[in-house]
């Protein structure tokens, strides 16, 4: 009788917990993010997409600006056209020359700005937009922080530039971060080494198998030969016994025959 009310309360409690969890994670999912199309490897080019949501219920997003690093610069940046938006890539001299993969770079892209061409193109409440670039060569770092600002029609400017602390707790306005993997050459060298190790192991295993097979064949051959010898000896002994029995039985048979003849003569 009491099972249904208890089950109902359990379901209501679980539903409430899921709702609270969804509400707690909703703001984080609305942050500005950057994601690569595939792997972003050091030394190579990558297609990066910034996902920008509008977070104001009363204003629209009219401009998005991404700041590029100058200590680990990107030598080349190109943008993918966004209908209704104008993109501008600003280049500037670097504070200090930087060597990128054997080449000294003194000037690089430092800023990308997308601006809505009209009020109709601006991002309204509940909308988001993807802004995509191609950039490289990527620096040899573990992560690339790309601070971004978002400008609204009411002149509000939101800076997404806060680094995530070591504790892992996300700040209110975290900066978009691109995770950079090891250079493709390093992967290739590692893969080649692993492949060599695998081949060597396979060769060793094959040699061991061959050696084991040869040993097994030799052992089986010796065993067969031994069995053959035993069979031959056994056969020889059997023949000898048969011949011996025949030799012993022959005289007895002859005498018996003579006696019989004698008795018959008589």
Short description:
With about 270 residues, this protein is of the alpha+beta class. It is about 40% helix and about 30% strand.
Q: Could you walk me through the main structural features you see in this protein, from its secondary elements to its overall organization?
A:
- The protein has a domain at 30-182: Immunoglobulin-like, CATH 2.60.40.2230.
- The model is unreliable at 14-28, 187-202, 204-220 and 250-266 (pLDDT under 50).
- It has helices at 3-29, 184-265; strands at residues 33-36, 46-53, 61-67, 76-79, 85-100, 103-116, 128-136, 143-145, 148-152, 157-160, 177-179.
- The strands form 3 sheets. The protein has a 5-stranded antiparallel β-sheet, with no helix packed on it. Strands 1-2-7-4 form a 4-stranded antiparallel β-sheet, with no helix packed on it. Strands 8-11 form a two-stranded antiparallel sheet.
- It has 266 residues and is of the alpha+beta class.
- The radius of gyration is 45 Å and the shape is globular.
The largest β sheet comes out as: 5 strands, antiparallel
Stated plainly, the CATH topology of the domain at 30-182 is called Immunoglobulin-like
Largest sheet, spatial ordering of strands: 5-6-3-9-10
Distance between the termini: 121 Å
Poorly predicted runs of 5 or more residues: 14-28, 187-202, 204-220, 250-266
Total helices: the number is: 2
Strand tally, please?
Answer: 11
* Rounded mean pLDDT score: 75
Shape: globular
Rg, alpha carbons = 45 Å
In CATH, the architecture of the domain at 30-182 is Sandwich
Helix content: 40-55%
CATH superfamily descriptor of the domain at 30-182: Uncharacterised protein YcnI-like PF07987, DUF1775
Element pattern in H and E: HEEEEEEEEEEEH
Strand content: 25-35%
